[in-house]
Write a structure and sequence with these properties.
The chain is of the alpha+beta class. It is built from two helices and ten strands. The protein is 26% helix and 31% strand. Strands 1-4-5-6-7-8-9-10-3-2 form a ten-stranded mixed β-sheet. A hairpin with a 2-residue loop joins strand 8 and strand 9. The N and C termini lie far apart (120 Å).
Amino acid sequence: MSSNVKRYAFFAGIAIVALLVVTYVFVLNESSEDESTLTEVEQSPTTVTSTQMTGVTKQPIFPPRKPQIAWTEITSDDSLPKSKWSRVPDHAIFVSLNGRFDQWLLNTPVEVHIPHIDTTYRAIVDDITPNGHHSTTIRASPASDENDLNRLILTYGQDQTLAYVSTKQGSWELTGDGQIGWLVSSAELKRSQDYSESDILNENFDRYAGAEYVPRRTE
């Protein structure tokens, strides 16, 4: 074999070795990058889980709710059944119930009007509890821009509706059926209790305690 052929074979061998070295280094770098990316992907769920384990609970995000009106004042009592509402206190004001309490959902904005002081309070439904016996209790807290409302509690069923509205201006109670109710100040309702009559044991009693649609007071 001539010297030129040997020289060419020598340089070709060197070139092949160099190409193999470069290929090995390139493949090694690619493998390292893939492992790094895989490690980050695998660790990310662990980071989320540890954050969740801190005990911080995010508030549920509700879609926008349609605003609701709790009731509206009845300006004329011509359509009221006189026999049904004959025992209502003189200072009570009749209201028309919206009849759609079953459409109130969590985070529903509600307007609560108190005609006695011509004031409307804004509330947000934050609790709905079925009570059994075909009745449900709804609780609502003040809206973010409401400073005077304390709490709204409303219990409704097929034939009866009860509500309690607590505000910085006082509290009001509502009693009604599924369509019509009457609203009265808690202070006035308490003052209207008449203990002047006595029972067969000569003990005074509240004449309004057994009146139809009047809720018994526990305080």
